[in-house]
Specification:
The complex is a heterodimer of chains A (about 110) and B (about 130). With about 110 residues, chain A is mainly β. Chain A is built from no helices and 9 strands. The radius of gyration of chain A is 13 Å and the shape is globular. In chain B, a hairpin with a 6-residue loop joins strand 5 and strand 6. The chains are: A mainly beta (about 110), B mainly beta (about 130).
Chain lengths: ~110, ~130
């Protein structure tokens, strides 16, 4: 099977930059997307194809992917960005696999 | 506006069966692949199953293979998940999810750019005696 590993939690002060990593074997050779899930709500895609933002997603969300690690960056983090974040990729061993998830806390 | 409304969840005893349904609206249903994703209470997301626009390609997570069956009725804009031999570890919210493309990618594909662009609110399945 193929696994994507994320840190369980990330803390950030308002206005600062939050970086959430997603690690997997040769992940840089694959496309990665990111979802935001707020408590009691369904997930929403915030980044697709490594670095593209869907319409309606603020510019403070950006993504990158290289080597074994993909990164979701939230610049100028706001209180409304407090949520769980999941990465996802497709691998022949584990199609449509999700990462373990990261809880972002804005202190 | 895309709407995905799941139904069919509930409390069920171990070993029993259930059929989950998803009513889709706000988009051309038969243009898109669809999926089921589940989330145990307080836990992470797990892809369960997917189906291509024309039902020609289907896939399942190893944890549900041979117990769950995905299907769709494009005439009714509906997605289904037949679940058999339920186990306590199947307890979760089951989300109906719209793919961004028409294709479901199985083994043999090479790193497709996948993502899910719309999610339902989920239906809770609780497996307990």
């Amino acid at each position: 099977s193929y696994e994507l590993t994320q840190p369980p939690s990330v803390s950030v002060s308002p206005g600062q930059t939050a970086r959430i990593t997603c690690s997997g074997d040769k992940l840089g050779n694959q496309y990665v997307c990111w979802y935001q899930q707020k408590p009691g709500q369904s997930p929403v895609v915030v980044i697709y194809e490594n670095s593209k933002r869907p319409s309606g997603i603020p510019e403070r969300f950006s993504g990158s992917n290289s080597g074994n690690t993909a990164t979701l960056t939230i610049s100028g983090t706001q209180a409304i960005d407090e949520a769980d974040y999941y990465c996802q990729t497709w691998d022949s061993r584990s199609p449509y696999v999700f990462g373990t998830g990261t809880k972002v806390t804005v202190l | 506006e895309v709407q995905l409304v799941e139904s069919g969840g509930g409390l069920v005893q171990p070993g029993r069966s259930l059929r989950l349904s998803c009513a889709a609206s706000g988009f051309t249903f038969d243009d898109y692949a669809m999926h089921w994703v589940r989330q145990a209470p307080g836990k992470g997301l797990e892809w369960v199953s997917g189906i291509s626009w024309n039902s020609g390609s289907k896939g399942y997570a190893d944890s549900v293979k041979d117990r769950f069956t995905i299907s769709r009725d494009n005439a009714k804009d509906s997605l289904y998940l037949q679940v058999h031999i339920l186990r306590p570890e199947d307890t979760a919210f089951y989300f109906c999810v719209k793919d961004s493309t028409s294709l479901h990618y199985g083994p043999g594909n090479a790193n497709p750019p996948i993502y899910f662009d719309s999610w339902g609110q989920g239906t809770l399945v609780t497996v307990s005696s």
